[in-house]
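Hey, resending since the last one bounced:
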Amino acid sequence: MAKVGEEDPRWIVEDLGNKGTNVNDWHWTEVNVLPWCTERAHKLFDDKTIVKSKDITVTVNVEQVSGEATVSNRKRYKSIQLFNTCRKLLAFYELNITLKWNATIPQGGSATGKVNMPYISDESENDEIEVDAVADTKSQDAQTALKHMNQSGILAIKKILFDFLSELRAGANMASMVPPEEPKEEKEVKPVKEEKKSKKEGPLSQYEIIKDLSDGAFSKYVC
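The structure tokens again:
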């Protein structure tokens, strides 16, 4: 037993703190998916017509996506096949999305405004998410457009939003970040050659001697 102060430094286990609980992302992997959320929101909402009738047409575009969004994979899988079949993904997010809407009225009028979704959280159910439309002015055209927004535009926005959240909860772009499985090399199987049975060594049997004599091999047995 070593004396105090004479211990080998290799015996001392370093306290790694939180780093020691998930070395090399083995137990879980956390990925920041806010860039994905921003890109995906633009793709789903930009230039989208949410109200279209003979009286008015309203389109929307993304003004801002802010907040936090991460997806955690609760086990590291090194292949797409294992990732898709065995994954356990958890999405954590608090997002604030703001849209701009633009209304066009056939008689020549127009109006603009915003759609605010200030708190989109993983702790909230879909029907609890607040979606509020406001107009930039109080003109008659703006009030007409706002009326159509509240009647049908908000429902169309919620439908797109719920599709967006379904993709986020399913892992966002986590699958694309898993490296593809390397193809296995097929080994060439060589045919097994049958070994020829060697002649039995040792004294000949009586049957073999009689066969040789019948074939005329007398010299083998001449002393």
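Residues 139 and 153 are 19 Å apart (CA to CA).

Sorry for the duplicate.
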